[in-house]
Amino acid sequence: MEDLLVRDGSEELRVEIRGSFRDASVRRFQSIWESAQSDLFWRQFVVNISGMAEYDDAGYQLLRHLHQHGVIFVAATPRSLDFLEQIASPHAIKIEAPVARRGSERSLSLRSRHRRELKGIEVNSRVH
Q1: What is the pLDDT of residue 60?
Q2: Is the residue at 118 inside a domain?
Q3: Residue 57 domain-assigned?
Q4: d(Cα 7, Cα 125) in Å, to the nearest integer?
Q5: What is the span of the domain harbouring residue 12?
Q6: Nearest by Cα to 16 from 57, 72, 67
Q7: Contact partners, residue 89, CB within 8 Å, separation at least 6
Q8: Is 28 inside any structural domain?
Q9: Tens digits of per-residue pLDDT, 2-54?
Q10: Please, what's the b/e burial string for 4-43 (b: 16 or more CB within 10 A of its CB; e: otherwise)?
Q11: Which of 32, 51, 82, 124 could pair with 18 in a Cys bridge, judged by C-beta atoms 3.0 to 4.6 Å apart?
């Protein structure tokens, strides 16, 4: 199975990460990113991490770099929301295991905000 699925369109370059994001897949992704930056025409760069199972330190650093440069991330599973929260953390601390949160700290996290939005979508889709 391919670890990176690339969809190269006229307005968007979308990369879907599947399984482990490490070693060769990180290097290949870096090459895709650098190539996209050298294009004459600007396109939106989108990274789908919904199918990502894990990443190593190099993968984390690359995804964090992309997030800081405004790349759009798609995260549609609870695990991918955890990864997105780790990548987007302003403290740049890679979380090795889920952290239990309580009170207002929980309500400010990206994960809970995204889950609230997903729950609303699920409810709305059942009504129709």
Answers
A1: 96
A2: no
A3: yes
A4: 27
A5: 4-96
A6: 72
A7: 95
A8: yes
A9: 699 999 888 899 999 999 999 999 999 999 999 888 766 678 999 999 999 99
A10: beeeeeeeebbbbbbeebbeebbeebeebbeebeeeeeee
A11: 51
Confidence category of residue 104, pLDDT binned at 50, 70, 90 = very low
73 vs 123: which has the higher pLDDT: 73
User: Per the structure block, which two tokens stand in for 98?
Assistant: 């889920």
CA distances from 39 to 33, 34, 35, 48 (A): 10, 9, 7, 21
Adjacency order of strands within the sheet including 72-74:
4-8, 12-21, 44-55, 72-74
pLDDT of residue 127: 37
Helix (H) or strand (E) holding 25: helix 23-37
Residue 52 lies in a domain: yes
State both tokens at 73: 């991330």
Nearest by Cα to 67 from 85, 52, 50, 51:
85
Number of domains in the chain: 1
